[in-house]
C-alpha cells in the first residue's frame, strides 16, 4: 500500500459499508417479491422505496463528506464514482419492484428468479468487500467473481428475451415484462461498475 504522510478521513469506509448493506436489504426485498402474492407486492414496493431513500441519504452523506474533507482516503473522482454506482444499484432494484406493481404483473416469466439470485449474490459480495477498502487487501476475488456474475446475468437476460418473444405473450405484456428484465440487467451492470471502480482504486493504491 502507498505510504502516506498525512492523515486520512476514515468515515468514508463506514459510509460505503452502510450503502452496500442497504443494497443487501434491497436484494432481499427482490427475493421476497418473487414469492409474494399480488396483494402483498404493494407493501414490498413501499419497503423497497424506503430502502432506496435510505440509499439516497447514504450517497448524499458521502458527497457531503467528500466536499468538506481536505484529505480523502483515495482519489475524489473514485469516491464519487463508487458512491454513484452503489446508488445506481438501489435505483434499478427499486425501479424493477415498482414496475411489477405499477404494471400489475400477475406472474413473472421463468428466469427472473435467476436474475434476482445473481443480484442477491452480487449484493452479498459487495457488502463483504467494502470493509476491505481500509486495507485494499483480499479484494481481487471479489471483482473477479462479480464480473463472472455479470456475464452470467447477461446470459440469463438473453434467454429471458428469447422467451418473451417466443409468441406466448401478447405485445403489451412483452413490453411490460421486457422493461422489468431490462432494469434487472441494468442492476447487474451497476454491480460490475462498482467492482471495476474498486479494482481501479486498488490498483492506484498498490
UniProtKB/TrEMBL annotation:
SUPFAM superfamilies: PhoU-like (SSF109755). It comes from the Bacteria. It holds the Pfam family PhoU_div. Belongs to the UPF0111 family. This is DUF47 family protein. It comes from Streptomyces pyxinae. The lineage of its organism: Bacteria, Bacillati, Actinomycetota, Actinomycetes, Kitasatosporales.
